[in-house]
Amino acid sequence: MVVEIDLVGEPRETDPRVDLAVSPIDTVYDAASATLTVPVHSIGIRDADPFTVRLSRDDAIFGEQHFDGLEAPVDLMPRIAAAAFSDVTEPDGIVVSVEPDETTDEITTVNNALTFRAQ
Q1: Which three-class secondary structure state does DSSP give residue 111?
Q2: Rounded distance between C-alpha atoms, residue 73 and residue 119, angstroms
Q3: pLDDT in tens, 60-105
Q4: 7 domain-assigned
Q5: CA–CA separation, 92 vs 9, rounded Å?
Q6: 1, 76, 96, 112: least CB-packed within 10 angstroms?
Q7: What are 15-34's pLDDT values in tens digits?
Q8: What are phi and psi of 19, to 5 degrees?
């Protein structure tokens, strides 16, 4: 097997960076309390600066929680901040996103949002 890789842009610096992530695996809806709980994971090697967890549907934001930051898991122990949103009556299709402040340079942003699907 031969793998060819083409550089399609300037390489990014490899300095230690933040990486905040949300996952559909542990985002949970409790119908009895109408609460959607979104764990935000810090998976980078640098502490995260302030960030916001948002709920939206059709580009309309209807829930936000702000956090002062989150430590990096440099000792390999999980670092998680849980955002719990109450009065969520129709969770299916909600877009959950974690938005770092504008000065944060993350490793990747592909894990910053998800569309919740009730199971």
Answers
A1: coil
A2: 30
A3: 999 999 999 999 999 999 999 999 999 999 999 999 999 998 777 8
A4: no
A5: 37
A6: 1
A7: 788 999 999 999 999 999 99
A8: -150, 110
